[in-house]
Amino acid sequence: MATTDRYAIAIENADWTIPGAFPTHFRWEYQDGSDSLLKLYQKGKDRQWDATTRIDWSQDLDPENPEELPDETIPIHASDVFRRLTREEKAAVRRHFQSWQLSQFLHGEQGALICTAKIVQQVPRIDAKFYAATQVIDEARHVEAYSRLLHDKFELAYPITPTLKRLIDDVLTDSRWDMTYLGMQVLIEGLALAAFAQFRDQAQNRLAASVNAYVMQDEARHVAFGRFALRDYYPQLTQAERDEREEFAVEACYLMRDRFQAEEVWATLGLPVAECAEHMLQSGFMQRYRSALFTRIVPVIKDIGLWGPKIRKAYEQMGILGFADTDVQALSERDEQVAVEFDRARAEIDRVARSA
Known about the structure:
CATH superfamily: Ribonucleotide Reductase, subunit A
Structural class: mainly alpha
CATH topology: Ribonucleotide Reductase, subunit A
Helix content: 55-70%
Number of strands: 0
Largest sheet: none
Strand content: under 5%
Number of helices: 15
CATH architecture: Orthogonal Bundle
Number of domains: 1
Shape: globular
Order of helices and strands: HHHHHHHHHHHHHHH
Radius of gyration: 20 Å
Distance between the termini: 37 Å
């Protein structure tokens, strides 16, 4: 069955073509490069894995709660709308909302795949080209894993949201290489890391949790790639150029915070869309959740030097300025450790099965 047949909403076209023009940069000096990027490149080579063999695809999903997540992760769980639903209707909400979220992860990973291929062409330094090449295969693997999870296990998917599509379009149509880093490596990937963590840490279904854990192990390196490249480059820009990038970062953060309302899910399930969206905006739980999604973005924005009055004021108004001092290195190390723990658990399960 084709993926288009899995979509809960019909799509007019399975293709999206973005016209654009940007320079392709060759580099004839092959020995330049920073130690941090070259070490990251080596790590990227060492940590390659196969989605077919590392993930145990024999596991099934619970039809009433595929990822086995607590209902608190459903944005409308505390609303009158959700309380009025029958058991079967609540099960449909769980399945469709989880599928919608994973679908956005899937589409975002394809966006990252294309953006990183663009970085290989555009970025001027050879060390960055080396690392970006490893990320291209990482992103292809992520697309493969999320596609298989949705297509074969959920048997349900959702199209890309207009907000995510707009952000990817903004990134891909900008001809400047650093804007690709800023938009994808720092902002979109940073938000994705925080969202992945919510489901990796709360999902009781090991298949769904392991997919997120293994993707996160890669994504932590990708955000580091953006940090290393941009914190060397942004001090060279004029204040006007940095101001422009701060404005882009602020607008993107507002979009990511306020515009992912899952209207498609509520409409597909026949629920009152306006009431559900209003609850998502006003719910204290959802406000805290949306703020937590910026844990990985704010400290990186500060680290790369986009820390002028405008961006600090915007982040203070959004209630996320306090994340500026988050230890992103410690978070990355935990991402690595959690993935290793999933490997150990899988090995133990396989050992017990062989000895039975």
